[in-house]
What we know:
Layout: H1 2-11, H2 14-18, H3 23-55, H4 59-69, H5 74-82, H6 90-114, H7 118-126, H8 131-161, H9 174-182, H10 186-214, H11 222-230
Helix pairs in contact: 1-10, 3-6, 3-8, 4-6, 5-6, 6-8, 7-8, 8-10, 9-10
Amino acid sequence: MNRIGDALVYLNDPFNWSRAGGILDLLAEHLRISVLAVLAAMLVALPAGVLLGHTGRGGAFTVALSNVSRAVPTLALLTIFAVTPIGFGPTATTIALGVFAVPPILTNTYVGFRGVDRDVVEAARGMGLSGPQVAMRVELPLAAPLLMTGVRTAAVQVVATATLAALVAGGGLGSIITLGFRQQDYGAVVAGAILVAVLAVLTELLLVAVSWVLTPGEKRLPFLRARRATAVPEPTSAGVPL
């Protein structure tokens, strides 16, 4: 409990937020690394997943290879980059996290496209739509929920794993944790862990909202849906509920 109290004291100190290299600067650096990594992964994984899911060719092998790549630790990639021209720093961290984010996006995009009802696809083709039009106008909207789940999973994993950037001079909120360990300031360590956890949860909530907006169909808030489900039906003039 004392360490949690020390963490709260650390987080309540305005100087720790506003100083150069403080929490706000580290947060901006953490977000920049995470956003660039996820965007890079999306640029690679989304087109590949759409193409493979639409054609259904070579997808199983690619997804299996993508899943195997998850077993490669991000820290191992950072170590390999250290002996290459990439070296240490934010660039190495962004590339490693981008590689880490590709598998869930690629897998969910492929599975989402393959999960679209084939009768719907054939009906669209029967209406004269070309292959790209079927993929963009029919399959993509129907696969959007699963696709966004992949993006959300990748983004949360990247935000959490970006803490490793501090180990290779990459900055980010992980710097608070590593510095705390060096100085044996375990209150700062707990504070850094809290910040990373809160950022990951906020990322999850934000992308859940984005997924809800992008998913086709009628939009209803969950609590409104629950109220409507429990509402008592109004009686008609004949005394029979509607």
